[in-house]
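Data availability (excerpt). The following record was deposited with the supplementary files.
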Amino acid sequence: MLRFLKFLSGLLLLPLCVAVTCATVDVLSNAQGKGSAFSIEAACLAAGFFIWLLCWFFLPQPARVYILGHELTHALWAMLFGGRAKDLRVSAKGGSVRVTKSNALITLAPYFFPFYTIVLILIRLLAGLLLDPVPWPAVWLFLVGFTWSFHFTFTLQSLMVRQPDILEHGRLFSYALIYLLNVLGIGLWIVCTTSATPMDFTQTLAAHTGDAYRAVWACLLAAWRWRS
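Predicted structure:
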């Protein structure tokens, strides 16, 4: 029964995945129309992203670094939900960590939570408390793009093979949730580096969400009437 409910939840998330994709594209297009999409902030972020892609294709992949971040993400999210983590093990072939609490977010967090990017942002915020202004703002943005690209490439590679984390909650639900939260992350970067505001993104997302679910409802009604 639980598997069926998660499958149903995955189906219900699909229109929201379409909505958040359309909203992200619209917000970026509007920012480009205002001539602000390619700000220095966006350029630094994009530079970091593409430099990591070059590293990914032409240098040895630091699998152990990714696996460490993957397992620490499980541990962090377990603690956020009131659990505990112990027995962290990491090798070049895989890793594990024992947690006392588990749910879909804890299990799937490594696929949508860019661990090293968040660590970097926290360091930047700490530096802001000690230094005014924080030096090298372009470098910080470059590193954010670099670490997020690291997360993006390893996540794609991980999802191309059989993952117990994915199977635990069902492929449809897991993939829909991972996609949704990663695209929301892209929307956040757009808001942070262009003239687009959180309100712009929220309003656009709300409009597309309403359109997506209304379209699904209309299709279901049409199918019901046709069957009747």
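Summary of structural features: The radius of gyration is 20 Å.
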